[in-house]
Amino acid sequence: MNQTIIAIKGTLKCLVIHIDTQFDFSDIKAALKNHLSDSNGFFKGAKFKFHPSDNTLTPEQYKDLEHLCLEYDLTPIIETDDTTKEIVKNDNIAENKLPEEEHTSFLGISDSELNQQSHFISKNLRNGEKLTFKGNLILLGDINPGSEIVATGNIVVMGSVKGVVHAGAEGDLSSFIVASILDPMQIRIGNLIACKSESESIKNHSPEIAQVDQGQIVISPYLTSALSKAN
User: Fold this and answer.
1) By C-alpha distance, which of 138, 139, 136, 141 is closest to 153?
2) pLDDT tens, position by position, 125-149
3) How far apart are CA 131 and CA 165, in angstroms?
4) pLDDT per residue as tens digits for the range 170-217
5) Domains along the chain with CATH numbers
6) For 94, how many CA atoms within 13 A lie in the half-sphere containing its CB?
7) Fewest C-beta atoms under 10 Å: which of 19, 115, 119, 137?
8) Residue 62 CA neighbour count, 13 Å, CB half
9) CA-wise closest residue to 5 among 37, 53, 46
10) Which of 55, 50, 64 lies closest to 22 in space, CA to CA?
């Protein structure tokens, strides 16, 4: 049930924590805690922003959820007057219906990013297995040699990648791939393909991010600021 109450979407700006407020607050808090606990510290240091399905949460409840995120070393986005105005201008924001002139921005995150479906699954992929998803994917598990994951959006793997991963499968070159251990047979973003050479094989268990830079896929160490600087 956690997937329907809480959905954590990785964007180039921050983590967006979607909250289905039709559930009891105790269930919302428990679902968020389970998500963060299952991440095993993968989101440590990442910036985050809540995005509820409506405006029924009280300030005290927001603060309670924020404190929970802080316990897992996430960093809330500090809202300036401009961003606060952008968020609370009217109830259309909760419905993803911003005024036309602001329709492409929510704290610098596009509507397409906010509305894109995300999937959270717990599974180890074995040789010969292939999974395909419409939208973003967060995988709690390993992608073993001979297996493949394909998503039209971003891919975040809380485990090792030793098979094939393909983000932005419908041609979105702004998509990215993040993994605890990124040592793939092949990596694809949009129509671009890259392979890690033997000399680039992992020497330590450090998270890495793959993204497109100047027309080619670049793999670099994942830092807390990596996503916010990607643009």
Assistant:
1) 136
2) 998 888 888 888 999 999 999 999 9
3) 10
4) 999 999 999 999 989 899 999 999 876 655 555 556 889 999 998 999
5) 2-115 (3.30.750), 119-221 (2.160.20.70)
6) 12
7) 115
8) 13
9) 53
10) 55
